[in-house]
Every structure is written in C-alpha cells, then in structure tokens.
Amino acid sequence: MMPKEPMRGATLFSHANKMTKAYHVMLTPLCKETGLPPLALDILLFLANNPEHNTAKDICRMRGHKPGIVSVHVERLVNDGLLDRRQTRLICTEQAQALIERGRQVQWQFGRRLLEGIPEEDLATMRRCLERMDGNLNGICKEKR
Questions:
Q1: From CA 123, how far away is CA 113, in angstroms rounded?
Q2: Are strands 83-86 and 89-92 parallel, antiparallel or unpaired?
Q3: Are 73 and 37 in contact (CB under 8 A)?
C-alpha cells in the first residue's frame, strides 16, 4: 500500500547524511585518540564486522565509497599494522583487535542512541519496512536502463 505522498528523496538523503554525520561524531573521540581518520576506522570496523566482505571492491560496493578513497585508507591501515593484505583479501590483524572492540562499543552506543525512545512495536514495523525497501532498491538497481 502506497502512502498518499511518498517521503521526498531530499528528506531521505537528509536523514542518511545526518545519520552518517552523527555516527562520525560518535567515532571522533576514538579517531582523535588513535590518529585515524573516521573513514579509515569505519573501513576497519566494516571489515571486522563483515569478514565475508573482505575486499576493497566489497567496501566500495556496500559502503558507496570511491575506490581511490578506499585505497588510500586501506594503505594507511596496512602501514599502521591494522590490516593484512593477502592478495586481494583484507584481514584485520591481531594488533587491530583492541581498537575494533572499542569501535564496536561506539557502534553499539550509536545504535542505542539512534533508536532511543522508539517503542519495540514501532521498531518491528521499521525493520519490516526497511527490509521491503531494501528489496525494492535491489529491484530498481537491477532494472536495465
């Protein structure tokens, strides 16, 4: 069932941009402490949380980052000893584990803050809607232009 007026694209993009900005605000203290740029820490956490998606191409595809930007940050993480590049696969090193754990705590706190005050039944509805939207987005992306 379609609402009378769908949410405008500008509103959706604004929410997505705010979410990214808020996420990076929460990562900032850890970034300052470690000297890592937010995107480098984000890439490290993405790889740690999604070990099945362990190539630069996966990061670009799933996170929407440009290959050149990902390459720069991956090189930094490799040079800092936080990633091991095995052929085309990127593996988090033992040295990265403490940082990954702290980053995951920030991610958990971000998720809690983001959903604060939303009743469980509304969260269940939101999850169903997001799953449906994901399916719709996949369909749109597969359409031939």
A1: 13
A2: antiparallel
A3: yes
